Amino acid sequence: MNIAEDIRTILTFYRTLGFERLPLKFSSKFEVQSSKAKEDEHSGANPSIVTRCSSEDKKAAIEELRREIGDCDRCRLSEGRKNIVFGEGNPDARLMFIGEAPGREEDIQARPFVGDAGKLLTRLIEKMGLSREEVYIGNIVKCRPPQNRDPEEDEMATCSVFIDRQIRIISPKIIVSLGRISSQTLMSTKVPISKLRGRFFEYKDIPVMPTFHPAYLLRNPKDKWLVWEDVQKVMERLKESGEQI
Ligand code: SF4
Description:
Elements: H1 3-16, H2 47-50, H3 55-69, E1 88-89, E2 95-99, H4 104-109, H5 116-127, E3 136-139, H6 153-170, E4 174-178, H7 180-187, H8 193-196, E5 201-203, E6 206-211, H9 214-219, H10 224-240
Parallel strand pairs: 2-3, 2-4, 4-6
Antiparallel strand pairs: 1-3, 5-6
The chain binds iron/sulfur cluster.
């Protein structure tokens, strides 16, 4: 690939991910076959570009997205938050966990899933043979709703464009959606989580496994085995796709 093709590919990568300008730092180590580099601006990033680009480029794109969000006041959740909880983990993760919104502890620490429910999620990830650093963890909305109420439709509509872009940048093999709100938002449905969980759905061609939210499990520990059943299906699917777990 010559330099002009490299540059064209990089520009395509960032444009299809919704960026209007290039990040300050980016790598030119794309492993893209130019014949596969046709973009579809209406359906999102071309997976052949995103999945084959370097982890450095994904990291740079994630950092650029965080800069773009800035000190966001695009919805009313900005009014009561202490911190934006952007999400964290490996920008090149095979597995993404997506919850609904930060809670009190997350708001204080500006990190997702660090309270009691987060500790349970961390234990689950470790039981799967992974670490938090190997996966990516985010939420549908990035600011804590007052008194931990459910995020409202307009707040989710405004903020979920960012988690959508994180998904498109990271391009994971599988997403685990944690709880009703995350699952219903990604599936565009109102079907209860008890009926959604345990079966794979798709979000923009990425398999999604809905399961119960760790906060629900703290209140209903007898259902932990259902979540374990769900993540075992995730591990099997990753192994089938040739991914190490
Ligand atoms: S919830 Fe999202 S859209 Fe709303 S203020 Fe926070 S970062 Fe911005």
